[in-house]
Amino acid sequence: MPIKAWWGLFKQVANAWLDDYVPSMGAALAYYTMFSLAPLLLIVVSVAGLVFGEEAARGEIQAQLRDLMGDVGAGAVQGLLASVREPAEGLTATAVGLVLLVVGATTVFAELQDALDRIWGVPGRLRKSGWLTLVRARLMAFGMILALGFLLIVSLVTSAMIAAMGRSLDPVFGGWQGVVEAGNAIGGFLLVAIMFGLIYKVMPRQRVLVSDVWLGALIATLLFTGGKFLIGAYIGRSGVASGFGAAGSLVVVLLWVYFSAQILLVGAEFTCAYARTFGSHKMPNA
């Protein structure tokens, strides 16, 4: 595409970001995520734990959280996760707890679907609530959670394979540790891009092709990968964790979630603009 077309596309995304009230939608999404984060991670760890064991899956999650949020934010999320894992006493309490766990984990995806529908301009009649619609949305959300668990399994397999390759080749060639770290970084980047692509492709109540989402998913992944260092530097230098006292760790998590929500929705805006300008939703006179 010529530079003028790129400029017009990014200008369209910026205007849509304001017109669709993406900052407000991101705040709502961050709010729901705070309540869904612990049960969501618990289900993801349980799914991945079926293959590698719960300790390995939990260790991978903790490493990823520490890389994203730092020790303070990761500690807060681990505390929430530990509180959710406490077993309930009695069959009835266990059943009720399981239902609440699934509902809590899927709530954020229901809110995300609503946000994506607004970005795509899905008519209100297609977004009406009802028992059948609610059940269908929750099942789709649970499917996305299972997909996240599968991606965690892939991440564990990839990391294990790269580490094993590094251990076997390092004595022969030497200096293989850098290649191992680069391989893990590339693998993590690709998994995040796949996650973004799945969300943009599956979640909206709109026909979206794979060719419409891949560029938006890559841009969102680049923004997320680069932005996490900026937000990490801000949190580290601003003293926001200590400024809020006992609630500082939760504020750090909330900042990270809001930042991630903005990146996710900006990528969705780009995907929508790209599809309408160059992709499957292109108008005849566009």
Automatic annotation (TrEMBL):
Keyword Membrane: yes
Localization, UniProt: Cell membrane
Entry keyword Lipoprotein: no
Protein name, as recorded: Uncharacterized protein
Superkingdom classification of source: Bacteria
PANTHER family: INNER MEMBRANE PROTEIN YHJD
Main location group: membrane
